[in-house]
Amino acid sequence: MKKLAILAGAVLAVALVAQQAQANLIGGSVNMSGSLALGPTAPINYADSLYTAFGVYSFGATTVSSGTQAYAGTTGASVTWNNGALPLWFAPAGGIENISDLWSFTSGGSTYTFSLASITSWVVNGADTQGLLSGLGTLSATGYSATPGNFTLTITDSSGGASAQATFGFGASNTALPDGGLTASLLGGAFLGLAALRRKLNR
Question: Are 9 and 128 within 8 A, CB to CB?
Fold first, then answer.
């Protein structure tokens, strides 16, 4: 009975460790929408199209359009962009990266932020009306551990650069190991250790 109690206690401890190891990671995704201005430097060249613009010169009014898991219930929150760190260059080579708190918003007493680490791609469609920017960064939120994340920024400019502003949709989500995968890996390794412990106790 003593051996069984030791093993049962060890299994319980492992399960708790596995649960706690990923309990603070941010899960889910958040989507935003708003307007932005294209251009390399001030004053903005309103003739810049998605093909010719160097990046986003400034973001306009932005709100959270949807959110899941850690971002559930944040729809409608007003988003603040770190415009002081812009322009946000499209080109990965020579572009501004490592932008702390690229955006932030508060909802339900919690503050959510995203810090840009790198830009991985920028693609414009043939009609020069839509561009897709992708990159990596870190998601942060009150009560959670900083979590690796990725993002996509979809810019729509039906004018082809003839207007002052374009609209956009921004989506960010975590790229951390899913809950079940992390728990399973921790438990798997622990049970191997428990098997060795049981053989030693049985000697």
Answer: no
